[in-house]
Design brief:
By secondary structure, the protein is mainly alpha-helical. Helices cover 62% and strands 5% of the residues. The chain contains eleven helices and two strands, in the order H-H-H-H-H-E-E-H-H-H-H-H-H. The protein has a two-stranded antiparallel ribbon with strand order 1-2. A hairpin with a 6-residue loop joins strand 1 and strand 2 (91-96). Helix 4 (51-57) crosses helix 5 and helix 6 (98-135) packs parallel to helix 8. It is elongated, with a radius of gyration of 33 Å.
């Protein structure tokens, strides 16, 4: 019978994220247990647990509970609010843990933002390294600024910038002006992905006739067959 009564007791739900991140919120173990006790009493119908009530559930004295409650309020983890009973028209106080949950959400959002921010910075760093590898030299400050403008002002994705760099390498026109023309052409045609850029390049190649001299050069016998690069922006 005792075991059955224990199973039928209400359970206090403590978010795993709170247990995982409470130290990062500057909450110590005593404060954490006090917050859980306050949540338990609120769930049980006691909307304003007093230091006396909390002291009976913990190893803290009434004075210590009162002091800790004040600390939680000052740290914006607990909110004591006033309200009015509609039936009796009398004012009463109640506790709210809403500031705790808001703080926890803000912490998680900041952590997630930093995670993606660091990843984005790492990817941008790899893009700059790729340019330096293709140009076989360090980039000038103006070139670094140009790439940054492609990303921030023109809102080109890193993948599209890499694809434009590849197009310039294949075409044998490895310079920033040519890469900028490629990106401008893609943006003008509403191209957002690398796949769309490749399809656009293929369509351009198919509808652009090969000059006579180029045909003769391709048909001329050679010791080894070489596939020439195609400057698909030649006529832009």
């Amino acid at each position: 019978m005792v075991a059955l009564k224990w199973v039928q007791q209400k359970q206090v739900t403590v978010p795993h994220l709170l247990l995982e991140h409470y130290a990062k919120l500057n909450i110590n173990e005593t404060e954490l247990v006090l917050l859980i006790q306050i949540q338990r009493l609120i769930d049980s119908g006691d909307s304003f647990p007093t230091p006396q009530t909390l002291s009976e559930q913990m190893t803290l004295s009434v004075e210590e509970c009162a002091e800790k409650i004040g600390q939680l309020v000052r740290k914006r983890l607990l909110l004591i609010k006033n309200s009015r009973d509609e039936e009796t028209n009398m004012m009463y106080e109640y506790c709210s843990l809403e500031p705790l949950w808001v703080l926890l959400i803000q912490h998680l959002e900041t952590k997630e933002s930093e995670k993606y921010g660091n990843k984005a910075a790492e990817q941008e760093g790899q893009l700059f390294q790729q340019f330096e590898q293709e140009f076989a030299r360090p980039l000038s400050p103006i070139e670094v600024e140009t790439i940054s403008m492609w990303i921030d002002q023109d809102t080109h994705t890193l993948a599209l910038i890499q694809a434009a760099l590849k197009e310039a390498v294949i075409s044998g026109k490895l310079n920033f002006r040519y890469i900028d023309r490629i990106l401008f052409e893609w943006q003008r045609n509403g191209i957002k992905t690398v796949e769309q850029a490749h399809a656009h390049s293929e369509r351009f190649r198919k509808k652009t006739p090969i000059p006579t001299k180029e045909k003769e050069r391709r048909q001329a016998p050679t010791q080894s067959e070489n596939i020439p690069g195609f400057n698909w922006l030649e006529n832009l």
